[in-house]
Amino acid sequence: MQAFVESMSTANLLMVIGIIGAVITIPVKDFITLEFYDICDVFISLFLVGMIMTRLSVEAQENMLLLAGIFLVVSLVIILIKIFVFVPFQEKAETNALLSRKDYIGELGRVTVAITKDGLGEVVLYTVFGNVPMTAKIYQEPNEEERLRIATGEQIRVRDIQGSIVFVAPEKEKAFLPPLESRWGK
Q1: Angle at CA 139, nearest 5°, toward 108 and 106?
Q2: Tens of pLDDT along 47-80?
């Protein structure tokens, strides 16, 4: 094994270390991270440096300052891609790939766990993509009387969203909403 490793060029060795390291560190990449750069990205950067090195001359491959510079540039490119490409998509796709949470404002649903004045409940929103359960609180208009409770089974409309909590208000009954319990699951 030692003879095999010694026969490899520095570029090939970096690519092998990069691939093996990236695969091994995938389970811990969320724990060993610096904001937009995690441990898996280090190994991906090593792999890319190895690929770039295969295009360089033998003298350039031995220049450690050049290799460190290439590593830093590749790492910076990975960080920029994460910031300007991945983060905007993650913010848009909070619940699924097609809807943002803000798209649920105005949607109709039913209460599945009663919502009290100071407590949380649960609602099911009926969207074109299926039923979506969400944690809910009562939405209060400044000029209306205070609601103390929205009972299980009542129809609601989403008025606002803050974080992962939807703020709902009771809505007059509409005929098109499905019941809470399905006859298919019994």
Answers
A1: 30
A2: 999 999 988 888 888 888 998 999 999 999 998 9
The matching CATH number, chosen from 3.40.50.2300, 2.40.50.140, 2.40.70.10, 3.90.550.10, for 101-174 is 2.40.50.140
3-class secondary structure, 47 = helix
Query: Are 149 and 93 spatial neighbours (Cβ–Cβ below 8 Å)?
Result: no
Q: Give pTM, 2 decimals.
A: 0.48
Strand partners, 138: 168
* Residues 121-147 pLDDT 10s: 999 987 777 788 899 999 887 777 777
CB 166 within 8 A of CB 110: no
Q: At 137, list the tokens.
A: 């609180």
SS (H, E, C) 69-135: HHHHHHHHHHHHHHHHHHHHHHHHCCCCCCCCHHHHCCCEEEEEECEECCCCEEEEEEECCEEEEEE
